[in-house]
Amino acid sequence: MRKAAVLLLCSLLMVAVIFLMTFFQIDSASLLKTNIAKNTTNIAKNTSITTTPGTTAVTYVTTRPKNYHYVNPNRTFKHCDVEFTWGKMCPELYTELGGRCDLIKGTFDCPDIRKYARFTPRQAQLVQTRMLRIFDLLAQKYKIHYWIARGTLLGAARHHGFIPWDGDADIEMPLDDYVKFFQVAAKELPEDVFFQNSISDPALKPNDARDYDVHKIVGIYEATWNPRLRDRNSCYKYCSAYGCKWHDGLMIDMFVVTDVDESAIYPLKQMQFEGFPLNVQNNWEQVLVSLYGESWPEFPTDKSPEENPDVFHGCEKLRK
């Protein structure tokens, strides 16, 4: 009789324990879901979310108002099945890789993530994205007008980042804004970014400058001798092949515009580029049509990178 009572008591205790475990598991799951939903709602108010097929969504904080509209055309991702021997048609964007770059109390917090990519062309683009973001932060700080241009504009509109085979980045800016950048902002660049023009790098100028406008403050600024931002820890190896003497690290081409069509360019709009908002001119779509034709949104599959830079060694190290 005692044995039967003990068995009954043990059975009841087991049932009670199982019930309590089930109850708390359900309650915890509900609470977790509720917290996730709340956090997701709060994040959505202040962040943008970018995804690439096969990757986890990554959020990054933006400082734009809730109703801010980025003008990137939507991506269908139908082209993302294409891969090359040297990279991907749809690599993870800079921010999707965990990249960040901010200016906090006058100090750049911009870790170098070139090692986060496997292929050399993409490693180079991660370096250039960081430089673009640094430039944009300084432009915001000093109210300097600029816009991404040429292949970089095409990349933003078509890929939301770099064209996979592109080897540099292009921006344009009015002459007055370039002078302002030269006088005020360039000195605040991080040590690993070199501002290159005909003054800071005397080798970057023609043998005969008589046909060029030599500005009293910034010197020669016309292409092919236009200013650039250069990464100090990489090398295109162009000068080692052709004998030039100027700094040859991975670059952002800065093209100075002297005749600004304000009705076409302003007000500036913005596109997401590698997860960061960058300026584009107001008539960006007409510009793309004029440069690349009506078929600019199509994704060619027969392209390949023209450069083969050393992404981890500056030119001076390679010469030793």
Order of helices and strands: HEEEEEEHEHEHEEEEHEHEEHH
The tally of helices reads 8
Q: What is the residue-mean pLDDT, rounded to a whole number?
A: 84
The count of strands amounts to 15
Query: Strand fraction band?
Result: 15-25%
Structural class: alpha+beta
Distance between the termini: 94 Å
Computed CA radius of gyration, to the nearest angstrom: 26 Å
Runs with pLDDT <50, length 5+?
22-67
Order of strands in the sheet with most strands: 7-8-13-12-9
Q: Level of helix content?
A: 25-40%
- Characterize the largest beta sheet: strand count, sense, and whether it forms a barrel: 5 strands, mixed
Supply the number of structural domains: 2
